Amino acid sequence: MNKQDIYALLSSRNIWHEITEHEAVFNMAEMSAVALPYPEADAKNLFVRDDKKRNYYLITVRGDQTVNLKEFRRRHQTRPLTFASPEDLMAVLGLIPGAVTPFGVLNDQERKTQVYLDEGFLRAPGLIGVHPNDNTATVWLKTEDFVALLRGHGTSVHVVEI
Description:
Blueprint: H1 3-12, E1 17-21, H2 28-31, E2 43-50, E3 56-62, H3 69-76, E4 81-83, H4 86-93, E5 113-118, E6 127-130, E7 137-142, H5 143-152, E8 156-160
Parallel strand pairs: 3-5, 5-8
Antiparallel strand pairs: 1-7, 2-3, 2-4, 6-7
């Protein structure tokens, strides 16, 4: 799915959303230069895999959070984790580096990827901002609607403290 497919999907499902178009951004430092309507809800996404390339995880946290992969591994009892390669990112989620987003799991036809979403996104205002499979825009939507959309696709979504 590309950006327009994501927009069409949200509209067809009557899911409230707002769109912020912006220059392409490839990291959180570049994103900090963009004027955002809900900066507290902007998400950072890490696409990682285990050492056997059997399990893939998309970890989504607020933009100002850090993720300790060793701690994540301990809490969720995974094998050792490392960042997935650009080739894995394209093969599994259909995305390029800098455009990692949970919307990418809609391209994961094998449902290989488990999403781990920080529970902080459920706190007020209850919004999340993620790229629509393209790093030239951010889509804002209610976190609960987003989780339901991903789960409706058959994706395993864990809402946890990260």
